[in-house]
Amino acid sequence: MASSVITNEEIAKILREIGEYLEMEGEAFKPRAYEKAAEAVEALAEEVREIYKKGSLKALENIPGFGVSITEKVEELIKTGHCRYYEQLKKKIPVNLGELSAVGGLGSKNIKRLYQELGIRNLKELEKSARAGKIKNLEGFGEKSEENILRGIEFLKQSGGRFVLGLVMPEINGIAQQLRNLKEVKKLEVAGSVRRWKETIGDVDILAVSNKPKAVMDFFVSLPQVARVFAQGETKSAIKLKNGMDVDLRVVSENSYGAALNYFTGSKDHNVALREIAIKKGYKLNEYGLFKGKKPIAGRTEKEIYKALGMDYIEPEMREMVGEIGFAQKHQLPKLLDYGDIKGDLQVQTNWTDGVNSIEEMAIAAMSRGLEYIVITDHTKRLAMTGGLDEKRILKQMAEIDKINLGFRVKGLGFRILKGTECDILKDGSLDLSDKILEKLDVVGVSVHSLFNLSRKEQTERIKRTMNNPNVDIVFHPTGRLIQRRAAYEVDMDEIIKIAKKTGTILEINASPERLDLRDQHIRMCVEAGVKMSVDSDAHSISHFGFLEYGIAQARRGWAAREDIINAWPLEKMLNFLKNK
Ligand code: DGT
Ligand code: CA
Ligand code: CA
Ligand code: ZN
Fold first, then answer.
1. Has UniProt tagged this entry with the keyword DNA repair (predicted)?
2. CATH code, 324
């Protein structure tokens, strides 16, 4: 590393690692001091080496958190590219801290012990020891910690460290709500990829307005789910949760809240494009506001920033640099499907097959969430492990649905249960139930649950054949992918969308957090082709109706409007569409 080019990022990393090493040594206050200094460096707009060049030691000492000994070390880093103190610490415990501390639940004290007692220096060695069952024998570790470590490693390998949004959202919402409840918090929002409803997220970026930031930060770093505290300051704190997920909290001023929200919501590419537009108009845009020279033009809200830039407000779900900027400038953005627009759920399983709850329980849960109807779509007989229904049992189920509906009507409830199926697609594209049965159902959905490895041509033909059956209404989870677990099967989506247009077949946006299938690009293709879609929870228990929110977000990420989504329409209109297609 040449001495003249050390960056703030590198300085911060070394300061932070010194802090971690000192924590391993059991030092009381110094670790925090180094962390604070690291954080101060990260917050600087100017490179530390430039500050030093201009004002030498005196200027360095003015950086917040820089005491005598930290200043000395940073000076050494700038001049030589090295820090002897850091190297000595590293020699004593020569581990890859970055790698090991990314494993959920592994604190610096444990990293030290694993090195001293088992010689573990990096992720690979950690995995080897854990697999050999060596860790559980260490005092204070045990079977459970070893499992957690293996799970943490597995997670890092499979996911590249990213989390499936729907699986961590309840925890994120919980943290955000606890913070909002503090009297010291005036405003608070989760920004970053969470606000854009990305399918997976790298970390969580929270933004708040407060006039007592210290109290907020103290509360934040002492949440019970916290595994480590990377940084604690008045404007920024950073933690790792026990599940391995990083969370940053920033406190900003009310006047720049909109600008900060816009900046930290991203995406990064979207931000860069906005900044360029600002420059062309003679402004400057950053996380503090939109400025003309030194004069603030906008910054309190996102809306006023977009307006000042001559564009319509862009919903966070669209901020992925997929054409949204041009549409906003021409005032041609679509009006997206709204979170309250879904009226019914077209894929619901019950305890007649692999669901947990009865038909009636599912109906009541849906009702209490404000839905007007559900379609019962239990599996069919080929999916034997779910107890899939044959012709005889589905007829029985239909009679049962009639009975429950009658009961609802007697009670004066407007809610309706419709009869449907999630019918298995067989190898050649024929179906697992006879047309005589399918004809009797209100809504027929079909799914690929087998032969994921067919060639692209065969798979596409197989699905096309079902779409050409006039009894078939919807193709459920059309590509079969499971996020981070299973790739989509090979299928020609251009062709499927073409046939969907011709036959009037609905393509599903499955809202189950690990499916989100169709994905955003496919939804956009359907919107452009005029192919209708549905947003379904694929609920297997009463709590799963909550998934609908992820499906709506996915629809919005694909620019879908209310008219594109048939279960956002009144029930009669939807049924007419299916009948007359
Ligand atoms: P993630 O966490 O990987 O799921 O994705 P994001 O989008 O949450 O990214 P993250 O956490 O690295 O940063 C949050 C936002 O901050 C990001 O969406 C845009 C903004 N941001 C971060 N770094 C930069 C940068 O270098 N330039 C600009 N213009 N914006 C940035
Ligand atoms: Ca993030
Ligand atoms: Ca972040
Ligand atoms: Zn199922």
1. yes
2. 3.30.210.10
| Domain end call among 251, 270, 291 | 251
The residue among 252, 244, 267, 253 whose CA lies nearest residue 194 is 267
- 239 in a structural domain: yes
Does one domain contain both 239 and 308? no
Least confident piece of the model among 100-114, 209-223, 243-257, 386-400: 100-114
436-476 pLDDT, tens digit each:
999 999 999 999 999 998 999 999 999 999 999 999 999 99
pLDDT (tens digit, 9 = 90+) per residue, 61-75?
999 889 999 999 999
Residue 284: φ, ψ to 5°: -130, 130
Which letter does DSSP use for residue 487 in this model? P
Cα(317) to ligand 2 centroid in Å equals 14
Count of the separate structural domains present in the chain: 4
Same domain (yes/no): 30, 125: yes
Atom of ligand 1 nearest to the CA of 193: 8
Task: Give the 3-state secondary structure of residue 530.
Answer: coil
Residue 368 has a pLDDT of 96
Residues 307 and 196 reside in one and the same domain: no
Gap from CA of 569 to ligand 2 centroid (Å): 35
What is the full DSSP assignment across 452-470?
TTS-HHHHHHHHHHHHTST
Beta-carbon count within 10 A of 4 CB: 10
Q: Clarify whether residues 496 and 441 are in a common domain.
A: yes
Domain that residue 138 falls in: 8-158
Q: Are 195 and 281 members of one domain? A: no
Q: What is the 3-state secondary structure (H, E, C) of 356-368?
A: CCCHHHHHHHHHH
pTM for the full model?
0.81
Residue 8 and residue 78 in contact, taking contact as beta carbons nearer than 8 Å: no
Do 153 and 181 belong together in one domain? no
Residue 335 lies in a domain: no
Distance of CA 435 to the CA centre of its chain: 40
Q: Is residue 180 part of a domain?
A: yes
| Binding pocket residue ranges, ligand 1, CB within 6 Å | 192-193, 198, 201-203, 205, 263-264, 266-268, 271-272
Q: Which of the residue ranges 54-58, 233-237, 558-562 has the most confident prediction, judged by mean pLDDT?
A: 558-562
Let me know whether 280 and 354 are in one domain: no
> Which residue do the tokens 């943490």 mark?
152
pLDDT the model gives residue 1: 41
Q: What residues does 534 pair with on adjacent strands?
A: 508
What's the CATH code of the domain at 85?
A: 1.10.150.110
Pocket test for ligand 1, best of 271, 317, 484 (most atoms within 8 A of CB): 271
Q: Are residues 153 and 168 in the same domain?
A: no
CA dist., res. 411 & res. 403, Å (int): 13
Which among 121, 142, 158 is the end of a domain? 158
Cα–Cα dist 207/257, whole Å? 8
Q: What distance in angstroms lies between residue 267's CA and the mean position of ligand 1's atoms?
A: 6
Give how far the C-alpha of residue 448 lies from the chain's centroid of Cα atoms, to the nearest Å. Answer: 26
Which residue minimizes the CA distance to atom 30 of ligand 1? 268
Contacts of 477 (CB under 8 A, 6+ apart): 447, 508, 510, 512, 515, 517, 538
- Please give the distance, rounded to the nearest whole angstrom, from the Cα atom of residue 352 to the centre of ligand 4: 11
Residue nearest to atom 10 of ligand 1 (CA): 192
Q: Which of 567, 560, 496 is nearest to 527 (CA)?
A: 560
